[in-house]
Amino acid sequence: MSAGVATAPRAADSIFRQNLRNFAGNRLAVASAVVVLLFVLIAVFAPLIAPHNPNETDLFLRLQPPAWLPGGDWSYPLGCDALGRDILSRIIYGTRISIFIGAAVILVATTIGILAGLAAGYLRGWVDVVISRVVDILLGFPYLIFAIGLMAMMGPGLLNIILALAYKEWVIPCRVVRGETLATRELEYVEAARALGASRGHIMMREILPNILSPVIVVSTIRMAHVIILEASLSFLGLGVQPPTASWGSMVADGRAFMLEAWWVSTFPGLAILLLVLAINVASQGLRDAFDPRFQE
Amino acid sequence: MSETLLSVRDLRTVFETRAGMVRAVDGVDVEVRRGECLGVVGESGSGKSVTFASVMGLVRSPGRVEGGEIVFDGRDLRALNPRQMRAVRGRDIAMTMQDALTALNPALTVGEQLAEVLEAHDDTLDARGGGRARAIRERSVEMLGLVGIPSADKRLGQYPHEFSGGMRQRIMIAIALACRPKLLIADEPTTALDVTIQAQVLELISDIRRKLQMSVVLITHDLGIVAEHCDRVMVMYAGQVVEEGPTAQVIGAPRHPYTRGLLGSIPRLSLRGQPIRPIEGQVPDLIDLPPQCRFYSRCSERVDACLKPIAMREAAPGHRARCIHVAEQQP
Fold first, then answer.
1. A11 touches chain B (CB under 8 A)
2. pLDDT given for residue A7 in this prediction
3. What single string gives the DSSP state of each residue in B49-88?
């Protein structure tokens, strides 16, 4: 009876893997992903790559120009800052701060956002009202001013920066997850799971979450670039990582006073921020194009 | 053990909307005997799906079950708490959805989806030797084999999009039957399928019903399917049962004008050249219904007495209809 409808089994291939293949076809996005990966490697292996101790000062090297300018020296390729610290080494160590804070904030915010969004979208009722109102209120604050206020209250420190940024960042994935959940909960397979006696937790985590993960991943990567800029902004304002720890934002701030006579102090960390944020943005655009069916031809 | 598996008395389910109270199910009685197949027919919005969603406790806000009694296998389902009700769903009563193409989770493999039901409901699996995971896998293969999916062992690792429509419907039936429920509610199981596949799926359900000795409620709007597969049939209109009885009697000698209308609107080869006779008019708005016969505005045999509420009347033993003309033998 069944032979007529049987089709030959093909190799199992999930939608996720198909999307990855789409992504691999986008050369610019892959190149950007490679750049991001390079930054990650630099962050991980900073002590092996950096030519000097990033915090070692030498006043004889004060504001030494980059190697290719008159007075430069190839053992300090990008020159030195006002305290005679090697700028290249500080940029390499600063990568750690940017990527670590960016990843940590996104991880915390996405976790909270997924849980809150699922609860709001699936349970509805007063849970939805409370979560959605909190989201609306948080969206009403300018991000940086909100973070500055929190940092002023909590004091500086790595953990506090992560918290200050995650406090508001979670509303972004939360809104995405809530919207997707509202659409997904009405689908037949969710109803079918209910009809088979699945619990609410099971439906949220097993039936709905795997199906809405793609847009969440895409949004989270796009937001990571924003978080890196925010961390740099906080550090620029002196509210971020405390000296002497190298952070791109505080390095830009260090060079403000000598912009005219020693442009390299601010410029190179600024370029590092630009390059990493640009690479993350282009790579996440590629991810979005690959994972969101609305962008596929 | 009584002969009745599911007994619903005077079920009333309402939906509160901005426009008013929609009485989607209004005083419905259902009886399903052990091992029988009950057909439930009616057009869209007649309350057939909502009736059985109410039985399973699946009616969601803004809807709620307002009153009535639902007794399944000697237990009052309305008295159960949500946790007990979840244990009944899937294990004792299972339901297959209208559209198999969307009723399987696209992000999980078929094997995972089968395993989840077994994991949640089957307590006998622990007792078997060889580890729980292997027992679940064996059972999954067995279920896919039962619904006629070849090389089931290999196909457990595949995703729903790798199966054809008919195969997905079979998989959904396999998932529904995984825990050997006593009652299977099949909500329009063939609406989304090709005609040839429809016949196979219905044959499969009948087959498994005999093999596992379970009861089946077949919700459909196709009287042809009912005639072929059901022992008894229940016709619903505007939230009420208008006729019920043994299939042969209801289809051979329908006593309610609506049932006759349904039968008359089926295209037949024997009546070639003659126009199909559709039922004139619209289903009444279920908000603020007047107390009269619900079919009044569309009925060709209405009389003044139909303006009062009409009760179910016996036409023959086991055959009842909600019409005052029941006693008269109509053509």
1. no
2. 41
3. HHHHHHHTT---TTEEEEEEEEEETTEEGGGS-HHHHHHH
Q: Judge if ipTM > 0.90.
A: no
Token pair 């600024």 in the structure block, residue: A270
Inform me whether the C-beta atom of residue B120 falls under 8 Å from chain A C-beta atoms: yes
Looking at the domain that runs over B4-92+181-328, which CATH code has it been given? 3.40.50.300
* Residue range A158-197, pLDDT digits in tens: 888 898 899 889 999 999 999 999 988 888 888 888 888 8
End-to-end CA distance of chain B: 41
Taking CB atoms and an 8 Å limit, are B95 and A192 in contact across chains?
Answer: yes
Could you tell me which residues come within 8 angstroms of residue A25 by beta carbon, excluding any fewer than 6 positions away? none
Pairing of strands B183-187, B215-220: parallel
Record the tokens describing residue B232, joined without a space: 């008894």
Q: Contact A195/B105, CB-based, under 8 Å?
A: no
Q: How far is B302 from chain A (nearest CA, A)?
A: 40
Q: Which residue of A has its CA nearest to B95?
A: A195
Residue of A288, A294, A142, A292 whose CA lies nearest to A222? A288
Whether omega for the bond prior to residue A156 falls within 30 degrees of 0, making it cis, is: no
Per-residue pLDDT at B90? 83
Residue A243: asked if its preceding bond is cis (omega within 30°), the reply is: no
Could you tell me the CA-to-CA distances from A112 to A100, A169, A202, B4 in Å, in that order?
Answer: 18, 10, 18, 50
Contact present, A98 and A231 (Cβ < 8 Å): yes
Chain A contact for B151 (CB, 8 A cutoff): yes
The alpha carbon of residue B80 is apart from the nearest alpha carbon of chain A, in Å, by: 14
Structural contact between residues B240 and B320, judged by C-beta atoms closer than 8 angstroms: no
Q: Which chain A residue shows the shortest CA-CA distance from B121?
A: A197
| A127 — pLDDT class (breaks 50, 70, 90) | very high
pTM above 0.80, yes or no: no
Helix (H) or strand (E) holding B241: strand B240-246
CA separation for the pair A159, A152 (Å, rounded): 14
Strands B75-76 and B313-316: unpaired
Domain definitions of chain B by residue range: 4-92+181-328, 101-180
Among positive and negative, which fits the CA dihedral B313, B315, B319, B325? negative
Q: Are strands B20-33 and B4-17 parallel, antiparallel or unpaired?
A: antiparallel
- Put simply, whether B191 touches A (Cβ < 8 Å) is no
Contacts of B200 in chain A (CB under 8 A): 1-2, 5
Beta bridge partners of residue B320, listed in sequence order: B244, B314
Residues of chain B with pLDDT under 50: 331
Q: Are B218 and B40 in contact (CB under 8 A)?
A: yes
Q: Which pair of tokens denotes residue A42?
A: 């630099």
CB pairs under 8 A between A and B: 108
Instruction: List B residues 155-174 in contact with A (Cβ-Cβ < 8 A).
Output: 155, 157-159, 161-164, 166-167, 172
